[in-house]
Structures are given as C-alpha cells and as structure tokens.
C-alpha cells in the first residue's frame, strides 16, 4: 500500500533526477541510475599524481587531491552543483558524499584520514542560504568513511567577493587571509580531508590548507564534488 501511495503522489509531484531532469524510478533517489554510472568520474583517488594534484604542486602540500567528477560548462555536473548550491537541495551533497565515500574508504592512504573539514562559508552567507553546500558533501563522506565532520575548527572571518571571472592570482588574493583555525590543538597530529564543492584554480583550497598547516604536525588532503579540466 505504501508503494501504491508513493506512485499516486508521484503523479502530481514527480521525483526527478537532479542531474538530467528525468523522472526517478521507485528505487532511485537524487540522481537516476543512468547518471550515477555515466557522469564523468575522475578516478583521481587511484592516482596520487593526477592532473588536479598537479595544480597544487609548488603552491601547497597536499597528501591526496581528488574530485568525484569532471565539471564542464552547461554539463550535468554543473547542473547538479547549481541545484545543490542555489536551489535548496542539500540532500544532493549528502548523497554524493555518501556515494564517493564508498570508493575512498577502500584506498590507502586515504583511509588514514582522521576528520573531514568543509571549506567554510561566511556566517552571513550561510544564514541566507540555510546551509553550507561543502558541509553537506562532507557529512556524506564522513558517514561512509566512519570519521567525524568538524565544521567549527576552520572558519571564514571575512566575506569574500565572488570568485567568478577572477584570474587565478586574483582568486588567491581574494581568499588568502580570510580563514582562521579556532582550536589548533584539535587538529594537531591529524590527517584532515579538506572538502569543497568544486575546485577550479585551487585558490580557496590553497588558502585553507595554508592556514591549517600553521598548526604543527598536520597533514591535509583535499576533495571536491567537481573539478575543471586544466
């Protein structure tokens, strides 16, 4: 009876795939099976010297640098991220994090990670949006990797301008001094997975990692839902 009721409701309020917009079947959630298997996966977790890792060479030390999908303009991944970020769909972040965590927890040295820290939003922006999209992804990762999410250890002290259309150097200048660690002793000796929704030039990840490295005996890896082709 419950299944029949769900089918009836779906006639008026159909559940759709947030990537392609097609209707979801009863056993599907958030994204359809086709998109789940055909979105452009990077498989960066299988190669420590992947193209995204090379973006940070000579800039900041990262143990692992990974992204779930390739991000292309007007593509399905961009549509997913737009829904997550601007359309009040935090469940997209949690679902993708849960899915990605299933892959990551099987691979060394990613399994040595002790905590997940999302790139923070400024409190004013987070109140307006209702949630931090990077934190939602972090929650999903932490659930399947069985490690804690620490959302209050790294904070944004100043609101930054939008990064859209800025050059790589301008993006770095925009975020280089706007983060702070609230409790250095809590991250000392830890391997941290720093999480963002998308990595383009890497300026935000670089700034956050540099701030985390001001604490002694810290290792930092970085992960995102999407990354651009560089």
Secondary structure layout plus pairing:
Layout: H1 2-12, H2 33-38, H3 51-55, E1 65-71, H4 76-86, H5 90-104, E2 115-118, H6 123-129, H7 133-145, E3 154-156, H8 168-175, E4 179-181, H9 184-187, E5 191-199, H10 203-212, E6 219-228
Parallel strand pairs: 1-6, 2-5, 5-6
Antiparallel strand pairs: 3-4
Summary, kept brief:
By secondary structure, the protein is an alpha/beta fold. Helices cover 39% and strands 16% of the residues.
Q: Average the pLDDT over all residues and give the rounded result.
A: 89
3D shape: globular
What structural class do helix, strand and pairing data support?
alpha/beta
Query: What's the count of strands?
Result: 6
Count of discrete alpha- or pi-helical segments spanning 4 or more residues? 10
CATH topology of the largest domain: Rossmann fold
Strand sequence of the main sheet, in spatial order?
1-6-5-2
Q: Profile the largest sheet.
A: 4 strands, parallel
Task: Provide a descriptive summary of the structure in words.
The chain has helices at 2-12, 33-38, 51-55, 76-86, 90-104, 123-129, 133-145, 168-175, 184-187, 203-212, and strands at 65-71, 115-118, 154-156, 179-181, 191-199, 219-228. The strands form two sheets. It has a four-stranded parallel β-sheet, sandwiched between helices. The chain has a two-stranded antiparallel sheet with strand order 3-4. Strand 5 (191-199), helix 10 and strand 6 form a beta-alpha-beta unit. The protein is built from ten helices and six strands. The protein is α/β, with parallel strands linked by helices. The relative contact order is 0.16. It folds into two domains: 1-38, no CATH class; 39-228, Rossmann fold, CATH 3.40.50. Helix 4 (76-86) packs across helix 5 (90-104) and helix 8 runs parallel beside helix 10.
């Amino acid at each position: 009876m419950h299944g029949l009721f769900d089918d009836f409701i779906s006639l008026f309020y159909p559940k759709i795939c947030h990537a392609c917009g097609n209707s979801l079947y009863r056993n599907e959630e958030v994204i359809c099976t086709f998109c789940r298997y055909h979105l452009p996966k990077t498989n960066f977790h299988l190669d420590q010297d992947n193209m995204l890792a090379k973006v940070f060479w000579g800039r900041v030390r990262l143990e692992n640098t990974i992204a779930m999908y390739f991000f292309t303009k007007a593509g399905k991944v961009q549509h997913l991220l737009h829904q997550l970020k601007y359309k009040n769909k935090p469940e997209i972040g949690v679902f993708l994090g849960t899915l990605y965590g299933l892959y990551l927890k099987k691979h060394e040295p990613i399994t040595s990670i002790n905590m997940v820290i999302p790139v923070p939003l400024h409190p004013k922006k987070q109140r307006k949006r209702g949630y931090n999209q990077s934190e939602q992804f972090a929650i999903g990762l932490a659930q399947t990797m069985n490690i804690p999410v620490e959302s209050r250890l790294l904070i944004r002290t100043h609101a930054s301008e939008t990064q859209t259309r800025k050059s790589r150097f301008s993006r770095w200048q925009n975020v280089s001094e706007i983060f702070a660690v609230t409790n250095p002793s809590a991250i000392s000796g830890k391997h941290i997975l720093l999480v963002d929704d998308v990595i383009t030039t890497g300026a935000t990840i670089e700034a956050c990692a540099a701030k985390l490295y001001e604490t002694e005996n810290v290792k930092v890896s970085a992960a995102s839902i999407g990354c651009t082709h560089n």
